[in-house]
Amino acid sequence: MGAGVLGSLRAGGLLLWVLLGTPIPWGHPTMGVSTTPRGSPSPHPGVPPPQGSLCPSPAAAPRRRLVRVKVVRRKVVKKKVLKKRPKAPAKDVAAPQEPSCPPLGLESLRVQDSQLRASSHKRYGLGAHRGRLNIQSGLYDGDFYDGGWCAGQEDAGQWLEVDARGLTNFTGVITQGLNSIWTYDWVTSYKVQVSNDTYTWHPCRNGTEEAVFPGNKDPETPVLNVLPEPVVGRYLRINPQTWFPNGTICLRAEVLGCPLPGACPARPLPSPSDCLDFRHHNYKEMRKLMKRVSDECPDITRVYSIGKSYLGLKMYVMEISDNPGQHEVGEPEFRYVAGMHGNEVLGRELLLNLMEYLCREFRAGNPRVVQLVTETRIHLLPSMNPDGYETAYKLVGPRCRQMGMGWDGMAWGHPGWYRMWMRWAHPGCSDGWEWGDRDAQASAGGCG
């Protein structure tokens, strides 16, 4: 480049031109400007010289270095980190419903056997009391305690009923098939119905249609169905609609529900804590109890005598019916007799408690008892042999304890005692047999 040296340096986007040595002639393509001294003829005719040279003559100034720096600015963009928000579920996709009420207690046995009923059953071991979630069967086919409830018929009219013993907000049902190593039985679809009195039943609806719930696909897997809308009632029925084609109607179940606030508490089953008079009653106490029950329920009870015993004690009968004292054509009649043998005391107490129970449950509106009283004429004879009871009561002492048996035991163990005992302890029984023939009750039962 003549006397000068041109160097090019590039670093970090900077263009650096360095001119070394003598000035580069003006107009050199490297400079792009003319270096012709003032007053000299222009090397390019017709082109006026520049006014004021950037590089004066050597005589006027020493040599200089011309540095041209080009600065390139870079724009730094900071990245923004956006946090992802969880996606909200689509409005048209309904989230799975969760039951808000706990199980009533079929599986835990909090629901007792007496609270379970069914339209029919194959046998006792497959009765309604076995229709509990996760209940297990015995080892043998036809075991007395089998693994579920099985209907006695195969039609869509079969049902398993649960009594919650109070108004309950039902929210769901869990079902299983029959637990068995011998057969495969389960329900594939069912309906749900509720009632307050077991007479009028209301189906569970899905909008305007009666809801049909999917059932099981195998015997063991529990299937939960949440009701479209909670329903309120005391009784709930599971009504199978379809079942495994190679099996029959069998299921185990659990019901989900919450007792309503302020609802009447459930009445417990008869137990020693109840107000029933659980104790032994002699003849005088028996008459007082029967009179007290008759005074409590005068509209459905009547006390009458069928005759006298050998010792002159009256044999009292309690009639329980919606029309006591009247024989209604077509209405079945039933009599229960207890105390045919003098020392068989349990039968007397059972019938006395039955009188109390029927009276109080009828007044409380128990639908089963109301139906029983209004559709049946019931006769209860708590002591058919009052003489034998009083004699045995007095003989509870050293002699009976020594022989290790009651009055009847002495009679049956010793023929002489038996003949004497029949002469004085059972003469009044003939009045009982005549009473049964005269009133012609449809059926009868003995209670010791």
From TrEMBL:
GO molecular function, one term: zinc ion binding
Renumbered residue ranges of the record's region Disordered: 30-60, 81-101
Cellular component, GO, one term: extracellular space
Listed transmembrane segments: none
SMART domains given in the database record: FA58C (SM00231), Zn_pept (SM00631)
This protein's UniProt keywords: Signal
Extent of Pro residues compositional bias: 40-51
Gene3D superfamilies per UniProt: Galactose-binding domain-like, Zn peptidases
CDD domains found in the cross-reference section: FA58C
Start and end residues of each Peptidase M14 domain: 279-448
Organism: Strigops habroptila (Kakapo)
Signal peptide from the UniProt entry: 1-27
Family per record: Belongs to the peptidase M14 family.
Gene Ontology process terms (BP): proteolysis
Highest taxon of the lineage: Eukaryota
Protein name: Uncharacterized protein
Signal among keywords: yes
Presence of keyword rRNA-binding: no
Pfam families membership: F5_F8_type_C, Peptidase_M14
Domain F5/8 type C: 99-258
